[in-house]
Amino acid sequence: MESNVGNKMKLAFFVKEGLDNFLEEIIISLSKKYEIKKIIITKYTQIEEGMEWADICWFEWCDELLIYGSKLDIAAHKYIVCRLHSYESFTNYPSLVNWINVNKLIVVAKHIKDYICEKFKLDTNKITVIPNGIDLDKYTFKERRQGYNIAYVGYINYKKGPMLLLHTFKAIHDRDNRYKLYIAGLFQDERYILYFNQMIQEMGLSENVIYEGWKDNLNEWMEDKNYILCTSVLESQNISVMQAMAKGIKPIIHGFVGAYDVYREKYIWNTINEAYEMIKEDEYNSIEYRNFIKDNYMLKNQMEKINAAIELIINPNNNNNGFNYIDYWDKRYLNKGTSGLGSYGDLADFKGEIINEFIKDNNINSAIEFGCGDGNQIKKIKYPKYIGLDVSKVSVEKCKEIFLGDSNKEFHLYKPGMIHDLDIETKPDMAVCLDVLYHIIDEQDFVKTLDDIFRTDCSHIIFYTMLKKPEIQLSQHLKYRNIFDYLSKYKGYTIKKIINQKYPEQSYSDFMVVEKEDEQISVKCLQDVIDNLNEFSAPIQNIINSYEFSNVKILAGKKEKVAENYFLIEFIIQNGKGMKLTLIGIIMDEINQRIMYPEYIRISNGFNDIDILTKQLIDSNIFDNNEANIINFVLDEDLKKDVESNRLVYLWERAIPGTGFMPLSGYLNIILRYKLAKKFVNVDDSILEAACGFGYGAAYVSGGCKTVDALDISSENIEFGKVAYPIKNITWTEGNVTNLPYENKKFDVYVSFETMEHLEEDMVEQYLREASRVLKDEGKFIISTPNGVNRKNINNPFHIKEYNLYEYDTLLKKYFNHINYYSQVDYTIVNGISCTTKIMIAVCKK
Fold first, then answer.
1. pLDDT digits (tens, 9 = 90+) for 8-35
2. 565 contacts 588 by C-beta, under 8 angstroms
3. DSSP run (H or E) holding 696
4. How far apart, in whole angstroms, are the C-alpha atoms of residue 815 and residue 148?
5. Whole-number pLDDT of residue 625
6. Taking the CB of residue 341, how many other CB atoms lie within 10 A of it?
7. Rounded to 5 degrees, what angle do the CA atoms 117, 101, 442 make?
8. Are the C-beta atoms of residues 300 and 362 closer than 8 Å to each other?
């Protein structure tokens, strides 16, 4: 469907076939103002094409279409609206959306909004509640009275409470057999058809329950009905009830989740007896029912709210009481105002010191600044060549006048989103944005400005802005945003360091240095995978050489697809003495029926025994008729019982190598972290790893140092490590990272991966304090933790708190003076905290 009208903005609706039931009236209303396309999506390329065409993109459901569209590069340059109904709330779809690119989320009920905000940690400022509206002209009204015809309208599925529907009507029928239940709808589960057929017979309701199938003309079908019955467990509104009320029919509404937010209490029942009493009572007021819809759920009101919501994302200044930040600065400069205290005195000197040092250390030849202001700050900085931009025409003209005759400086009027329209001959080395971002009140201009900063393709970017929310009320021309939430879409860049404010009593701003990614360690092909698995498992070779392959049994394992026709075969064995052996990195070439063993197995004394076990496993029926990418099996009865009892723990935390609980993708990322850590380890070093988990990391680093102390709070983990990695220079200790059982200054390196997020917040500093205590003066603390900014929709139930970089940096700086950051992106370790990373790594020294 397409509507072509002049030079209107273009609005595209994206929806799957058969799910556009609620769009007709919205399209009719919006077509008065926008050029419309309704795109029924059958392949993802239609989304790309539609978004290319449109200015505004409306996704009718929060489903795979929005997930795909929100992650396209073009999404950052479009206005995106999504309408979430209710069913999506109970899927993982919202957790997969890139919400940074979504401007407005419309939900149809307050209780749905409350639920998704809590479950998915969504930004409430982006969410608007706009209930579905009823077109009263489509439903003929008449004053009705009590009778015996009860209507049920809608699909028949678990959400609609079909069992409650039958049992409620049974109770009503038992008290007066004149009542009849008329059903207009479709069964969505054949089990309910069977259930209804059986129970209607068993309950003796064959003459009183009349199933009439789906009805396109509900207005006509409901004409002779006296009551509309709802037995749902959850609804956003239940439109059919509202349609019936528009006709003057009395509602009998079960107290579903959210019912009291949508309807008056007098229309709601909680027990079957209450439902019957509502039907039998004398009160019946058709005018009241219709007026309830007229006052609260008119289609006209819905359309007005939708139009206003779209208008607001296009012109967000309309929501700032008429405040226009560009006019503000023009008027301020015209009235001989300045750029503010930040461009004068101590603060200007501080910024000048930091940037001048950066220019010198990094051989910067040219810079572009977003927000040149009144020019005073520029005087403090020794830019070799400088391009100044500002949204204020007065500012630009003033700077041109101040620096007249300076051929190394040029100034341009800037409009957010239009960086490529400027006549800039050569790409600058560095982009600078000082005390500007929080002055951009307009949300779209803010995003476009960030986009333009990264579009300059500079090797270095320096931000000086609020990284932490101030504890004071900001004035009208200032707006705090968590910048880390916005940086996550800029691939290829890392945050190298944060330089804290020298004068915190004067300013809330800190420096943040962003640079292009510098790759350190990476996995790029299947051979890299094999090499990394082999290297990480090298310490196991000596264990295999002395391992007794008698009375061996396979405890657990997996088969995992790693490339077309190539599968990883891994498993854990245990011998008669209870000693375990984890065998990883075995590749099966299914086309050539060839098993490729990693070097640590191939050159070991136990190769023949392992070869026999591997072939027995492949020849067994464990992997038969299973096309899954990863097949996990557990044969040990004790382990099987533990998995069944603690499935959530195994899914999230107990990632045992050699089993399906440790997919290759996760294991490779772990290997890369330990490879990075090992770069800082010397052969004479004493190492502490805590928490050590199952001990594979301790085993790996043990090959390059003097001693390893492996500590974990879990006795099961320590016991596993002892029997799986009986390496002479490893000491296994059960203990707590917040109370380490070691003397002061004992260790050269302390490795602690993914630990602090498990600690109560009031214990995190004790954990770091203990780390500092047990390290030698030149010792290194190597720590990693999830980046909460890029994991907002990953809700690990075992993580107490996931930190953003500013919080992480602030905590570490209390106990360590020198910090170098690293992070992981797509099986690669890079210098700095990548804007897209989910894991932050720090190498700290006192």
1. 899 999 999 999 988 999 999 999 999 9
2. no
3. helix 696-702
4. 76
5. 64
6. 13
7. 95
8. no
Contact 501, 508 (CB under 8 A): yes
Neighbours of 427 (CB within 10 A): 11
The predicted structure's pLDDT at residue 200: 95
Taking residues 424-441, report their average pLDDT.
91
Residues 558, 632: contact at Cβ < 8 Å? Answer: yes
> Of the candidates 833, 692, 695, 705, which has an alpha carbon nearest to the alpha carbon of residue 752?
692
**What is the model's pTM?**
0.63
Q: Are 93 and 117 in contact (CB under 8 A)?
A: no
- The residues with which 305 forms a beta bridge, in sequence order, are none
What integer pLDDT is reported at residue 622 of this predicted model?
83
What per-residue confidence (pLDDT) applies to 5?
43
Q: Which stretches does DSSP call E strand in 450-502?
A: 460-466, 493-499
* Calpha distance 684→702 (Å, rounded): 11
Query: What DSSP character marks residue 795?
Result: -
Q: Rounded to whole angstroms, how far apart are CA atoms 514 and 494?
A: 6
- Report residue 545 CA to chain centroid gap: 46
Q: Is 810 helix (H, G, I), strand (E, B) or coil?
A: helix
Q: Which residues of 629-651 are buried (b: 16+ CB within 10 A; e: fewer)?
A: ebbbbbbeeebeebbeeeeeebe
| Two tokens, residue 647 | 């499935």
**pLDDT tens-digit readout, 164-200:** 999 999 999 999 999 999 999 999 989 999 999 999 9
- Looking at the predicted structure, is the pLDDT value of residue 792 above 80? no
Residue type, 641: K
Q: Are 388 and 372 in contact (CB under 8 A)?
A: yes
pLDDT at 316: 61
Q: What tens digit of pLDDT does each residue of 593-652 get?
A: 899 999 999 999 999 999 999 999 988 888 776 667 889 999 999 988 988 888 888 878
Residue with tokens 């070991």: 604
The pLDDT of residue 156 is 94
Give CA–CA dist 386/366, Å, rounded.
6
Total number of residues shown for the chain: 846
Q: Looking at residues 80-102, what average pLDDT do you find? A: 92
Distance (Å, rounded) from C-alpha 481 to C-alpha 165?
Answer: 49
Helix (H, G, I), strand (E, B) or coil at 38: strand
Type and span of the H or E element at 596: strand 594-596
Q: Maximum CA pair distance of the chain?
A: 99
Percent of the chain with pLDDT over 90: 74
54 upstream amide cis, omega within 30 of 0: no
β-bridge partners, 381 = none
Pairwise CA distance, residues 478 & 167, whole Å: 59
In the chain, the N- to C-terminal Cα span, in Å, equals 65
Residue 736: phi and psi, rounded to 5, are -120, 135
Asked if the model's pLDDT at residue 319 lies above 60, the reply is no
